[in-house]
Design brief:
alpha+beta; four-stranded antiparallel β-sheet; 25 helices; 19 strands; 47% helix; globular
């Protein structure tokens, strides 16, 4: 009899999971059947695909990607969490390549929606209400506007499972701590820091409010942090201890969701401008990430009339949804201003959309129980209408076929022919950005040139540097506004020469000397810089010291020439290794100094702590040149080798492996002790 009851209790869950699978195929079938098609989204072109492509290229050759040389003069891969270097889902890409892009995104949507279902069941919701919310989760706006945004979607997928593990831990259920630790490990490795931060904040409030304790959560959370320290410690080192704040955006200095996004309740393309669609012009977070449809919103409003009937648990989730909404839209900014406290921009209130998406789905499932506790036949009709309201935009969202690098196109070859050892600089302004990297998808789904050129940088109104790379500028730049201010105008000085800019691609038909027109690509002009110093150069002469701002001004104005002036810091950027050089020579970081070329070898790559240098096999100090780059004194005929081996990663990897070994030993010991 117990067996029959158990099978009956599992039947709604099985049917719900099958229903979610069917709904996923209905909504995303064309992406499953045609993995070469992708949802049109600028972030995929300039961020998600380049990051994924670069990481996979390294992993497929058997190397852990620690350093990205192709963006902003190089930066640590692990410092940019979105790379998901250690995330198990990356193994899927490593095995099947970028062809698994759609499958990975939809798989994580299913993980997220299934977590919503089971968490609502734990909270006492009926299977229909849980399935309703899970269906909305499967069709949430992030899916069809940012389906390729692997890191935020992968991190979002594990949020409900963290809450499931926490609830089971707090109620003393067996296996709860393991579920909590495992889900937290997956979310940390998925790598979106704001999602992790807001998940932990929401989890803390849930535990304190509903269970009045967090004590039982400490142990599994600490174990999860220790097991993943190889991922987050280099990020902490990079973004906190050597913190580089993103410069304030002119029209959104506090990183909140603009109230104008509320217009997308009425029209999903309400923010479109000048013929460009909404998903190109503005990140409409409200419609594409928070909006769960008109029917659920109507149910929310109707439920307000039965406020007195709400259980305490329901009130917690509803009030939580309202509080997070106010936070994401910047209403708490006024409180900071009144108290003369600067807004904590590192929290980026707009990034709380993932937590808000999760909380509103849980609140909706619980409200349904209060509003319609009895089974009614028309509830299925309501579900069909609500689902159709979200499926239609998914079906109508344009697709493109231009995300996968497709070999050497004529445009790419033209650019490469004009590069020596330096870099390409693609310059656009806010008006031109849509034209440059997001041509409107055409009905024929032809391939478009998206500037997939190695060793290039793309700068737009924000400090965005992309090409198999990431958007973060280097820590050495420190004040990014100075960098962008003094890089231009082009003709006055030598800063672009110092930065190793071999060519510029921009929407200008005329340029002053010394730039030489090298060709035209889709209406944009490629200009060659004959004075670029490229990847590395030898400096002979005296050295000076100076402040970063003055150094930039001197090079940008023409007062200083990098071939006749060197600004050198007194303290090394990185101290020498304790060991002589051993191991395989890296061709990209190996230099042979020509005879009679004694002086300073300047390598136009970030002189970050973690880099080590050897001259003829002997470890040496790595110096900071011109406030940016690597520098080492050399003599003619010597060889110079560099290697990036940050102590934070080595220590983190040791602790992670030690923690995993301890957990494995404990598990095996407990299993062997059982009769």
């Amino acid at each position: 009899m117990k067996k029959n009851q158990s099978s009956l209790s599992n039947q709604p869950a099985l049917l719900s999971l099958l229903g979610l699978l069917a709904l996923a195929f209905i909504a995303y079938g064309r992406l499953l059947l045609h993995p070469d098609l992708h949802t049109a989204c600028p972030e995929n072109d300039t961020w998600n695909l380049p990051v994924r492509w670069s990481v996979l290229t390294s992993l497929q050759t058997g190397h852990i990607p620690l350093w990205n040389p192709l963006s902003a003069f190089g930066l640590p891969w692990l410092a940019s969490w979105s790379t998901e270097v250690f995330y198990p889902g990356t193994w899927l890409f490593t095995r099947f390549g970028l062809g698994a892009w759609n499958y990975s995104g939809i798989l994580h949507l299913l993980i997220f929606s299934a977590g919503i279902y089971f968490f609502l069941i734990q909270l006492g919701a009926q299977p229909f209400a849980a399935f309703f919310s899970a269906s909305l989760a499967l069709l949430n706006g992030c899916a069809y506007n940012h389906l390729g945004s692997n890191s935020p979607m992968d991190a979002m997928a594990w949020m409900p499972w963290i809450f499931i593990g926490a609830r089971e831990t707090l109620t003393g259920m067996a296996g709860g701590p393991f579920k909590l630790a495992l889900a937290l490990v997956f979310q940390i490795l998925a790598g979106y820091p704001q999602t992790l931060l807001y998940t932990l904040l929401g989890l803390f409030l849930y535990a304190v409010t509903c269970f009045h304790s967090i004590r039982k959560l400490i142990r599994p959370m600490v174990l999860a942090l220790l097991a993943t320290i190889a991922q987050w410690l280099p990020s902490l080192e990079y973004f906190v201890f050597q913190a580089l704040r993103l410069p304030a955006v002119k029209d959104n200095p506090d990183f909140v969701l603009p109230l104008g996004n509320l217009l997308t309740w009425i029209n999903p393309n309400a923010l479109a401008q000048k013929g460009l669609p909404d998903y190109v012009v503005s990140p409409t977070y409200f419609y594409f990430n928070l909006y769960i449809g008109l029917i659920p919103l109507a149910i929310f409003l109707l439920s307000l009339f039965r406020f007195k009937d709400w259980a305490m648990l329901t009130r917690f989730w509803v009030f939580g949804m309202l509080a997070i909404s106010l936070w994401t839209f910047g209403f708490f900014d006024y409180c900071f201003y009144l108290l003369h406290i600067s807004n904590p921009a590192f929290l980026e209130p707009a990034k709380a959309w993932v937590l808000l998406n999760f909380v509103e789905l849980i609140a909706f499932g619980l409200l349904w129980e209060n509003l319609y506790p009895k089974a009614v036949h028309w509830k299925w009709l309501l579900l069909i209408i609500a689902v159709a309201d979200l499926v239609i935009p998914i079906w109508s969202h344009p697709l493109e076929r231009n995300l996968l690098p497709s070999g050497e196109t004529a445009q790419i070859q033209t650019v490469k022919n004009n590069l020596n050892s330096g870099r390409l600089l693609v310059l656009v302004d806010e008006k031109e950005s849509g034209q440059l990297y997001q041509p409107l998808p055409d009905p024929e789904l032809k391939l478009h040139f998206k500037y997939f050129v190695p060793n290039s940088n793309l700068y737009v109104s924000l400090p965005l540097a992309n090409a198999y790379s990431s958007t973060w500028p280097s820590w050495s730049v420190m004040d990014t506004q100075l960098y962008f201010k003094y890089s231009f105008p082009y003709a006055k000085g030598h800063l672009l020469d110092l930065l190793g800019v071999d060519a510029l691609l921009l929407n200008k038909n005329q340029m002053p000397k010394p730039f030489i027109k090298a060709g035209t690509l889709e209406g944009w002009t490629l200009w060659k810089n004959p004075n670029s110093l490229g990847r590395a150069f030898i400096y002979k002469g005296d050295v000076s010291s100076g402040v970063r701002k003055e150094i930039f001004k001197n090079f940008a104005s023409g007062k200083s020439n990098p071939e006749t002036k060197l600004y050198l810091e007194k303290e090394p950027a990185s101290y020498p290794s304790q060991y002589a050089f051993s191991g395989q020579i890296d061709g990209e970081n190996h230099y042979v100094i020509p005879p009679q070329k004694s002086g300073y070898l300047i390598i136009t790559q970030n002189a970050m702590p973690g880099w080590r240098v050897w001259v003829d096999g002997e470890p040496k100090d790595l110096l900071l040149a011109d406030s940016l780059f690597q520098c080492v004194p050399v003599e003619g005929g010597q060889t110079v080798d560099l290697r990036y081996e940050p102590a934070s990663f080595r220590f983190g990897l040791f602790v992670s492996l030690l923690t995993l070994a301890g957990l494995l030993f404990t598990t095996l010991t407990s299993l062997l002790k059982r009769p």
